[in-house]
Design a protein that fits this description.
The protein is α/β, with parallel strands linked by helices and 280 residues long. It has helices spanning 24-32, 41-50, 65-77, 98-106, 119-125, 144-154, 170-181, 205-213, 239-249, 254-265, 269-279; strands spanning 8-11, 35-38, 56-59, 82-85, 110-113, 134-139, 160-165, 186-191, 199-204, 223-227. The chain folds into 3 domains: 8-117, 3-Layer(aba) Sandwich (Cobalt-precorrin-4 Transmethylase, domain 1), CATH 3.40.1010; 120-227, Methyltransferase, Cobalt-precorrin-4 Transmethylase, Domain 2 (2-Layer Sandwich); 239-279, no CATH class. The strands form 2 sheets. It has a 5-stranded parallel beta sheet, sandwiched between helices. It is elongated. This is Ribosomal RNA small subunit methyltransferase I. Belongs to the methyltransferase superfamily. RsmI family. It is an enzyme of class 2 (transferase). It catalyses: cytidine(1402) in 16S rRNA + S-adenosyl-L-methionine = 2'-O-methylcytidine(1402) in 16S rRNA + S-adenosyl-L-homocysteine + H(+).
Length: 280
Amino acid sequence: MKILKKNKLYIVPTPIGNLKDITYRAINILKKIDIILAENIKHTKILINHFKIKKTILKFNNDYEHNKVKKIIKLIKTGKNVALLSSAGTPTINDPGYKLIHACHLSNIKIIPLPGPCAAITALSASGMSFNKFCYEGFLPKKKKSKETLLKSLKKEKKIIIFYESKHRIIKSLKTIIKIFGENRNILLAKEMTKIWEIIHKTTTINLLYLFENKKIKKKGEIVLVIDGYKEKKDDISDKIIKTFKILKDTISIKKAIEITAKIHKIKKNKLYNFIIKKY
């Protein structure tokens, strides 16, 4: 077995459900390193025991990260090779670890990231939505006001949006999404991915709420929501046009402001007028 060079931090993705999704390279690295940093020791032991790997495991989650970074840097500098693992998926994506990686950069410690499973990307690939850009927003805020503020800021986001959500908050979150994004926005539910009870279901926001409320889909397991981006309707008046109108109406009549705004943005005056009278 080829021995690894010393003083390295390996970022090792782990399966998000099906243990067969781990790569040969990940298994090989885990067999050779000295110490595993685990978000959840019990969960990580299931994985390494399955592949007959015996290693020292240190707990490394949000509660421990700040206090352990210096100790881990010291361990690596003394010649140890360390692997960073989250409970599932790629470490540091919505999981602890970025502070350690930042400290490794500052200490000129070589960082080796391995490719592997990621719930957000796996769900996105199954969305059937046209994309070359997307927004990953992690978990929706727990508090109602913070959740509404975030969703309002994303209401007209044209890129696909990915959220994680817990089984305990999914119904409340869907109600808030419907309130701000509307009932007919396309949405993909990816639940318990790669497991035998996996659900991949594409529908509208209102229908997904119905399925949860009526227990057609159980509130259980890990949840990823992939929401289609905002699509401008043909009759929409852009924010840029409205901004021009608002500036002009403060110094001239509304009628004249509409006329000049329509001319600047090359839109029909009647269309803008009909929109303005509904709003103002």
